Amino acid sequence: MEDGEDESSSLIFIVCGVAILYIALVKSERSHPNLRHITSSANQGYILSFLDALRALFQGPALVQKGYEKHRVNLFKLATLQRWLVIVAGTQYIEELRKASEDDLAPIDAASQPDMSRYLLRHHTTPNMQQESFLTRHITQNLPFLTLDIKDELVAATTDSSVLSSASEDWKEICGRDLVVPLTARVVDRIFFGRKFARNKRYSQLSLNSMIKGLDFKRALFLAFLPTSFGNFLSWFSRSRQDEQQIQKILTAYIREEKENVSINDVNHKPRDVLFQVIHNVIVGGMTGVESTLLSLNSTAKHTLALAFGHILYDLATNSTDTGFMRQEIKDLVAREGWSKNALDKMYIADSFIKESMRMNGIFTLPTIRKAVQPFTFSDGTTIPQNTFIAVPATARHYDDTLYPSAGTFDRLRFSSSHEKGVHHHCSTSRTGSVQYNLTTSTTEYLPWGIGQHACPGRFFAAIVLKTMLAHVVLHYEVKFEDRKRPPNIIVDMNCFPDLEAKIFIKRSKGEGNGGIGRT
Ligand code: HEM
């Protein structure tokens, strides 16, 4: 009996100790600059705001939305576990944030992210910013050459996928993840590491495993709950990180070996996959440590593209009754111009569909977060103290009826009609739509890519990959949900993910036998 009492009092002691330590850690991270002059979207006091912060873990987008509805043209603050965030809701504030120099408002890295779960996507870590921008620039500049590779890999991945290759003209139930993840992994790996790696069984299995583990949302929620420093530390031991370390070893060995075999002239004539270009820079420019930047970018690309494509696929399955126009547009353009970047650029209906999907189901509720390096004063006189984190509420703005009429309705042609209005020569062979309406154009109203100097540099590549994948599915398959209703999204902190475990029905389009894959 006494032993039992001892045990329970030790347990109480440990639980209290851990709770105190946790609160101390979180409190130390939440010690914030003086923001009393900024209205809170909910509670101001420490204890109540702490409860709001806990709620934000599960209902982050809804809390931002509520604050936005109250303070649409202003700014307000929102409690998160790590710190207060100042949300700039009004257009003028966002415009001023966009124009601010980095000496005033700087981008932040994952280590100081208010939204720890974003670490899952590693979308803001920059092991080496210079190398990262060199690699993304290389991909963007080579997009006209890479487009065919993307399509080629998609066709090969479709043939290798048991789910897709066995699809017939009868509906078949599959798990969303089984379609989304393998296709995205193969396409991104092909562009980063070339055909040899993308088709290598050992490599592609490792790549797939690390991606599936990386998309484990329960882990993300767990990380979001932890103080940032502890979460960062723990993520080093994750299983996806271990797979990535193995991949890194394979890559390092490959680069070392190729360095010996490849002559500089060779590389100059083969600028396609990113790895080849990296080898060139290792030889000519003496670039070092590039493997980890390459892997981090590759992982960023795979995760964000898989999640965005998941949302697009689910929107297609929910709005599948009238894909006829989109299919016809794709067929006509491909018949005329082949699978070229030019043809993809002119697929306005597909462009609009993806743009609308990202408007309504963007993965980042707060895509742009900046830190005030020094006190920052907006033109209305509101001053943000040094070390304050400022964020742009993309999703709330995307659902604002004054910015988007009937904002709550999925209108697949919303942006293609804008395109048609902006088109200079609307004849079937030379369509030159205005860039203003493109999927990749970032404005104070359209924010999935963030805004300003640090808006996503991978978005041109992302747009081509997403459009090729959508076009491929629309041409060869039909998809639907049993009751035509999208499964609810999964909310992790300020992120909004498609439920990749959800079931979706798929069948091959009429007249598309196995041999049809890749014909158009
Ligand atoms: C649908 C897919 C994607 C979405 C929604 C997305 C979104 C974003 C957002 C919101 C940011 C932060 C922007 C800001 O701070 O204002 C960002 C940054 C970044 N993204 Fe993406 N992204 C996607 C795909 C990609 C891909 C495929 C790549 C690489 C090939 C990439 C590379 C980067 C890099 C390097 C940054 C950091 C830029 C900087 O700090 O200067 N992204 N992205």
TrEMBL record:
<dbReference type="InterPro" id="IPR001128">
    <property type="entry name" value="Cyt_P450"/>
</dbReference>
<keyword id="KW-0812">Transmembrane</keyword>
<dbReference type="InterPro" id="IPR002403">
    <property type="entry name" value="Cyt_P450_E_grp-IV"/>
</dbReference>
<dbReference type="GO" id="GO:0016705">
    <property type="term" value="F:oxidoreductase activity, acting on paired donors, with incorporation or reduction of molecular oxygen"/>
</dbReference>
<dbReference type="GO" id="GO:0005506">
    <property type="term" value="F:iron ion binding"/>
</dbReference>
<dbReference type="InterPro" id="IPR036396">
    <property type="entry name" value="Cyt_P450_sf"/>
</dbReference>
<dbReference type="Pfam" id="PF00067">
    <property type="entry name" value="p450"/>
</dbReference>
<protein>
    <recommendedName>
        <fullName>Cytochrome P450</fullName>
    </recommendedName>
</protein>
<keyword id="KW-0560">Oxidoreductase</keyword>
<dbReference type="InterPro" id="IPR017972">
    <property type="entry name" value="Cyt_P450_CS"/>
</dbReference>
<keyword id="KW-0408">Iron</keyword>
<dbReference type="GO" id="GO:0020037">
    <property type="term" value="F:heme binding"/>
</dbReference>
<feature type="binding site" description="axial binding residue">
    <location>
        <position position="456"/>
    </location>
    <ligand>
        <name>heme</name>
    </ligand>
</feature>
<keyword id="KW-0479">Metal-binding</keyword>
<dbReference type="GO" id="GO:0004497">
    <property type="term" value="F:monooxygenase activity"/>
</dbReference>
<comment type="similarity">
    <text>Belongs to the cytochrome P450 family.</text>
</comment>
<keyword id="KW-1133">Transmembrane helix</keyword>
<keyword id="KW-0503">Monooxygenase</keyword>
<dbReference type="GO" id="GO:0016020">
    <property type="term" value="C:membrane"/>
</dbReference>
<feature type="transmembrane region" description="Helical">
    <location>
        <begin position="12"/>
        <end position="28"/>
    </location>
</feature>
<keyword id="KW-0349">Heme</keyword>
<keyword id="KW-0472">Membrane</keyword>
